[in-house]
Each structure stands twice: as C-alpha cells, then as structure tokens.
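In this supplementary section we document a worked example of the pipeline. Step one takes a protein sequence of length 311 as its only input; no multiple sequence alignment statistics are reported here. Step two produces a three-dimensional model, which step three serialises into structure tokens for compact storage. The input and output of this example are shown verbatim.
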Amino acid sequence: MDRRIDGGAVLERLELEAFLTLAEELHFGRTAERLHVSTGRISQTIKKLERQVGAPLFERTSRDVRLTALGERLRDDLRPAYEQIGAGLAQAIIAARGITGRLAVGYSALWCGDLVIRAAEVFRARYPDCEVRIQEAQLGDPFGPLRAGELDLQLTEFPVREPDITVGPLVFSEPRALMVSAAHPFAARESVSLEDLVDTVLLPMTGNIPDYWLEYHYPSRTPSGRPIPHGAPITYWQEVLAHISVGSGVSVVAARGSAYYTRPGVVFVPFSDAPTIDYGLLWPTAGENARIRAFVNVIHELREQGDPATR
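The serialised model returned by step three reads:
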C-alpha cells in the first residue's frame, strides 16, 4: 500500500504505518510493539521519511516524543486516506470470505436471546453487508428450524447428539433451580436435591425432542434410582408457568430464570446437587459457512471479554 506525497515521492506502507502509529503513541517502543518490528527499524523508517519530506516530523528528547507542526499537518492529511484504504481492504476481505447475504440466528431461552442480540449488534457493525435475523426457537422442536433451513445457527441447551448438526464449544453454564408454586412445601426451603423430586410431579416438555435431551432436563429417576412422577407433557413454555402457578406440578429451569419469569405464585428454589444447564451454539453440518463461523467468533469474543450477557 504505497501513497505518493508531495514532489512525487512514494510513501511505503511501513513508513505510513510507522508515522501514523508513532503520531498516536508518541513512543518508539510501543510503536515497534504494535507493528511487530524492532525499535531501531521504526527509528530508521521515520528518519527516512523525514529525509523525503525535507524537515523533521517529530521533536525527540530523552524524555518524550512530540509532533512538529509539519508532522501534525501530515498526520491530519494522511489519516483519513489511510483509514479509507483500510476499510476498503477489510470490505474486500469480507466479500471474499462470503460474509455477506443473510444469517438467521435462533435462541431458546431469554438469557440466550440477550447474548444473541448483543452479538448481532457487534456482527452488523463488523459485517455491514450481512443481514442478521433473530428469532426464538421453541423447546418443543429444538432442531426443526435448523433442519428446515429457517435458522442457520442457534444458541440453545445442551446436550445435543445429532448426526447432521455440528455442536460448537460451550458458551456458558447456569445452575439449576426448581420452579414451584408459592403454596408448595418446597417454596419455603433454601434448596432442594434431585432426590426430593420423588415428592413432586415434574412437568416435562413434549414435541419433537430426543429422549436423551428429555432425560437430562426432566429425569425419570433420581440418582439413587427412585422413579420421579411426571405430569402431562406440555408443548409451550408459557403453559409450564401457568400450570406451576396453580400447583399442577413443578419444573426444572436455569436459576437465571428467576430474573425473567416474574409471575405471581411461582417460586424458584435452587438445587444443591443438580448438574448445570449448559448452553452452546449449533448449526447444520452441511450448511456451515463463513457467516456462521464469523458469528460464532463474535459470541466467543464477547464471552472472553466478560460481556454481561454471558454471565
């Protein structure tokens, strides 16, 4: 990336980057670190540029580095063009990688939706030529929209063991709680155990749901092998809340649900011994593409940064 400066001289890429970075950092060592070259290389490059210009661009002392008036002017003249070139190159790379078009992302729980929406904001800013559509995925058919092509990607509960679906890394985990009616004997307790489920009626979900998934989230037996009574299966999550509020049964949920499902007559009691509910990203193996990989990367960047939606 060469640019001509006054008098027909050619500004090489390192000279341009070294000048603009040093103009920002005002420190040769930090400039060298950012550009992954030696401090001596930066010093030589700046001296070469100053010879081309015919005047000093920086004032150097043993204690600090400052731009001269000419250096400030050159910085102000070059920065917009440099940023425009960088933006154009980035867009070309995005187009070459196929990060354009449309991406449909689903989520199963409201707290998953928080993270998906936050990630979509970052994704849209980074890849403006790619449209992102977000929709809730029903627990009664957790993989149907992916298989039908309605969704490209989904943040949802594990475990998932489907031959045609790729399972991404774990995104976050949540402790479990038991949702009970305010009139239920467990409502006044500080915690419950999985063995306590023998004294309840557990309300499971129904639909096109794998048996292994149901057993993990709505177990049929306690760890000691005692059977857990199950009530009539329910298709939609809002129905679960209605049944619990009138005392028809109980249900297992992520403890974070207490901040989202504030319904009169429903109490959340933490489990003392239940495994966590784990959440991760899924996508059809045959449909994997650059858009999906880019969105997955954004999700994991937010997780590494400690974004509140991942806690």
